[in-house]
Amino acid sequence: MIDQFKRNIDYIRISVTDRCNLRCIYCIPEGGVRLVPHESILTYEEWIRLCQYLAKLGIKKVKITGGEPLVRKNLPFLIGELTKIKGIEQVTLTTNGVLLKEQMKDIAKAGLNAVNVSLDTLSKGEFAALTRFDVLHQVLDGVEEALKYPSIRVKLNCVPLKSYNDKAGILNMASFAREHNLHVRFIEIMPLGYGREVIGYAEEEIKEFIGSEFGELIPFKEEIGNGPSHYYSLKGFQGKIGFISAVSHQFCDNCNRIRLTSEGFLKNCLQYASGVNLRELLRNGTSDSEIMEAIKSSIYGKPKRHTFDQTLKHIEQDKRIMSQIGG
């Protein structure tokens, strides 16, 4: 699938639920949000059908997200079925890690290729304040369990915020990649949903912290994963340090991804409200060829870039929060 700006779209993130067992301050308010009715969320059979269409059109990599995907029952079944689809080369998972220890064996057996664990701090107090739940020990147990499977790549996703993470906390996160065979990625907070209300660190600030403590960050040229991260090696580190810096280092020119919300709405850009309702087409008896044409049309119209800098205010922005869009 080639869009109007000649980008090859081969990666999709599918949000299998809008439910989550945490309440991270930049994602969900403490009291929660109005949830999508269960009947409006795609069934596993519908996900499989859509991914079969997408694979025929050139999608090769599928990331399963939420909400928190591990709260959805029998997720290993979906993982296993997606790995069987001709053309799908990788099926990966992003999770907050709370339920990872108890489910890791089953999702590994299903054929998962990689797991990303969202973890913004190693401080018990900061974690409880950020997520509104005192379950850091469960997340760390989940990471430890995931590392028992050498064939599954493990990454930690950290969104450092200035109100919660100081230099020492960021260095603690970075040192996790020195002490363990995993990669730590620092992600700039994006001005979406409740993310507009907090202030994060820019990539250059974090690199300065890490460089002053651990030495030179050496650019790592090989690909690690499917998305827009760029990585650095450090002397004495088992893993790499990565950055996803959508605000300070816009990577839209090389964007290769699309998203499907839990309700089956195909989004061709995280920021914008534009897209196509595939659930409606599935449940209205639309033919395979017509659904595939709708997908191709939406992909072709993918915007050139995001406008977190607000330079294109006339384009309709997606007003939903991240748990509703898909993390």
List keywords for this structure.
327 residues, alpha/beta, TIM Barrel, 16% strand, cyclic pyranopterin monophosphate synthase activity
Task: Return the CATH topology.
Answer: TIM Barrel
Instruction: Enumerate the spans where pLDDT stays under 50 for 5 or more consecutive residues.
Output: none
The share of residues in extended strands comes to 15-25%
Give the strand tally. 12
Strand order of the largest sheet: 7-8-9-6-5-4-3-2-1-10-11-12
Overall structural domain count? 1
Q: What is the count of DSSP helices, taking H or I runs of 4+ residues?
A: 10
Indicate the mean pLDDT.
90
* CATH architecture field: Alpha-Beta Barrel
Name the helix and strand elements from N-terminus to C-terminus, one letter apiece: EHEHEHEHHEHEHEEEEEEHHH
Describe the structure.
The chain has 327 residues and is α/β, with parallel strands linked by helices. The chain has a single domain, classed as Aldolase class I (TIM Barrel), CATH 3.20.20. The chain is built from ten helices and twelve strands. It has helices at 44-57, 75-83, 100-109, 124-131, 136-146, 167-179, 203-214, 278-283, 288-300, 322-325, and strands at residues 11-15, 61-65, 90-95, 114-118, 153-158, 183-187, 218-220, 230-233, 241-244, 257-260, 265-267, 275-277. Strands 7-8-9-6-5-4-3-2-1-10-11-12 form a twelve-stranded mixed sheet. A hairpin with a 7-residue loop joins β11 (265-267) and β12. α3 packs parallel to α5 (136-146) and α6 crosses α7 (203-214). The radius of gyration is 19 Å and the shape is globular. The two termini are 23 Å apart. The mean pLDDT is 90. Keywords: 4Fe-4S, GTP-binding, Iron, Iron-sulfur, Lyase, Metal-binding, Molybdenum cofactor biosynthesis, Nucleotide-binding, S-adenosyl-L-methionine. One of its GO terms (molecular function) is 4 iron, 4 sulfur cluster binding. Its cofactor is [4Fe-4S] cluster.
